[in-house]
Amino acid sequence: MFKLLQKLKPHFEKDGKFHLFFPVFEMAETILFVLPSRTKKGAHIRDALDMKRFMFLVVIAATPAFLFGIFNVGYQYFLAAGINATFLDIVLKGLFIVLPIYITALVVGGLWEVLFAVVRKHEVNEGFLVSSFLIPMIVPPTIPLWQVAIATSFGIVIGKEVFGGVGMNIFNPALVSRAFLFFAYPKSISGDSVWTLFPEKVIDTYTTATPLAIISETHHGTVIDTLVTKGYTFWEMFIGIIPGSIGETSTLAIFLGAIMLLITGIASWRIMLSVFAGGIAISFLFNVLSPDASHIFAIPFHYHLVMGGFAFGAVFMATDPVSASATNTGKYIYGFLIGVIALLIRCLNPAYPEGMMLAILFMNLFAPLIDYFVLSSHKKRRLKRAAK
C-alpha cells in the first residue's frame, strides 16, 4: 500500500495533473501511515504523537459512550413499543438508527473539510473526525438526517472554517451544531416526543420524558421519589438505560472515556475537575436555598451528574483544547464557571432543563479574556519582583 501511494504521489504534487486534490491524498496517506518527517528546530511542540493520532485517541475514548448509545437507542425503541427483544435485535435496531446519523455527519463534515482544504491549499484538518463523531452523540435518535446535514454544515463552516480552521475557532464546532438545531428546529431536539421512535405506543410503565424534564415539572413529593416513580433510579441513570441524546446517557461509559483521556494526557484534568467542582458548589448552595424537597433546587449533585449532558460536556466538550482556556489558572476558572452556569440554567430556567451546551459555548467566548487577565496578573507580579 505504501509503495502504491508513493507511486501515485507525483500526480498529486505541484505540476501534477491532480495537484488540486493533494490535500485529499495527504489525508489518506497520513491516516494510513506515520510519515518520517518531524519538527527538528524552532519554537514548536515536538512529540511522537501527530495531530491525526491525537484526534483518533479522542474518538477511541468516546467509543464506549457511542457503543452504549447504539444499544440504548435500540433498547428504548423496543421498550416504548412494548416488545421483548433479544440483545442482538436491540443492537441491530440501534445500529440501524444511529449509523445513518453518524454517516451523514461524517460525510457532510468531510466534504466541507476537503472543500476548504482544496480552496485554501492546505492539509485537510483532522478536527472533523472528532466533530463528526461527537455531533451524532449529542442529538436525539429521532433527529431527521437532513437536519443533521444542515447542523453539521453550520457547525463546521460557521463554527470553525470562517475562523480559519482547526486551531483558530473560538467555539466548539459540535456544540455550535447542537445550538443551531436547538434554536432552528426546537421541536426536533426538545420535548418528550423526540426521545423514542414509538411515542404513540408507550407502555404504562414507560415515559418518554427525560429525567430533567420530569424534575422541572415536579410540584409534590420529593424529586428523588418522583424520579423513582417514573422508573429512573440513580443506578439506572448512571448506567444509562434512560431516554436522552445518543451518547450522553451513560455516565459509566463516559467515565471510561475520561480515564483514557486523562491517562494519555489528551484532556486537561484541571478543566474536568473544576467543572465538577463548580457543579458541586452551586448544587450545595441550591440545596441550602431549596424551599422544599419537591423543588428542583433539592436535587443532589450526584443526580445532576447522571442526568442530561453534564458528564459528557465536562469530559468531551469543555476540555476541547482549542476553544478552552490555555493557561493553567485559566483552566480552573473556565471549568468552574461552566459547572456553575450549567446548573444555574438547569435550575432557574424550567423551560430549558439542561444548560451544559449553553454554559460551554458561553465560556468558549470568554476563554481568551480569562487567559488575558491571568497572563496580565503574572506579568504584574514578575515586574514587581524585578523592581525589588
Strand content: under 5%
Anisotropy-based shape: globular
SSE run: HHHHHHHHHHHHHHHHH
Instruction: State the end-to-end distance.
Output: 64 Å
> Could you tell me the number of beta strands?
0
Low-pLDDT stretches: 41-46, 199-207
Number of domains: 2
Instruction: Give the fraction of residues assigned to helices.
Output: 55-70%
Describe the main β-sheet briefly: none
Structural class: mainly alpha
The overall average pLDDT, rounded, is: 82
Over all CA atoms, what is the radius of gyration?
Answer: 23 Å
Determine the number of helices (DSSP H or I, runs of at least 4 residues).
Answer: 17
Give a concise summary.
It is built from 17 helices and no strands. The protein has 388 residues and is mainly alpha-helical.
How are the SSEs placed, and which strands pair?
Elements (H helix, E strand, L loop, with lengths): L1 H11 L9 H11 L18 H31 L5 H34 L6 H8 L10 H13 L15 H12 L1 H4 L21 H6 L6 H7 L4 H6 L11 H14 L4 H21 L11 H6 L3 H8 L10 H21 L7 H32 L1
Describe the structure.
With 388 residues, the chain is mainly α. The chain folds into two domains: 162 residues, no CATH class; 179 residues, no CATH class. Helix content is 63%, strand content 0%. The longest helix is centred in the N-terminal third of the chain and has 34 residues. The radius of gyration is 23 Å and the shape is globular.
